[in-house]
Amino acid sequence: MSEDRREAILARLAQVAGTIVSPGSVFRNTIDIPDTKLPAIAVLDGDEEADDSGFGRGRPSNAGTVMALTPHLVLKLQASPEKVGPALSEYRAAILKAILEDASLIALSKDGDIRYHGMETDLGVGRSMTGGAAFLFEFRYYLRPAKL
Q1: Counted domains in the chain
Q2: Residues in Cβ contact with 39 at an 8 Å cutoff, skipping those fewer than 6 apart
Q3: CA 78/CA 101 separation, integer angstroms
Q4: Residue 30's domain is classified under what CATH number?
Q5: CB of 148 closer than 8 Å to CB of 2
Q6: Which domain, by its residues, includes 24?
């Protein structure tokens, strides 16, 4: 039986996002979202990187390793200028609570290791004021090549 924790984490993120916005307003790996679907969340796969601390000691290449997956959740919404900041704050709270407390994501992560690295908004000098934010997370998990 195949066990791809990377894909399981990304799929679960999309499911969790569907509890925050309408499930029909969750997208994977696209940010070209029609206005009619807003508010929406795009789950972008991001990057993954190996924890190199276990390498170089005669360790076989097919041994398990700890990976760090860094997907991005991009929120897009429509709000008037005076309401966009508070709306982003409300969604931020909902996203953090939903992801950091999700039992399935915790179980998929090594020792429940889910980290929130912060949020980047499109609200600032020289940026468009469309009401969007990217939430940066890191999930550590075991990659076991024999189980793929």
Answers
A1: 1
A2: 21, 25, 75, 76, 77, 78, 91
A3: 27
A4: 3.30.70.1700
A5: yes
A6: 5-147
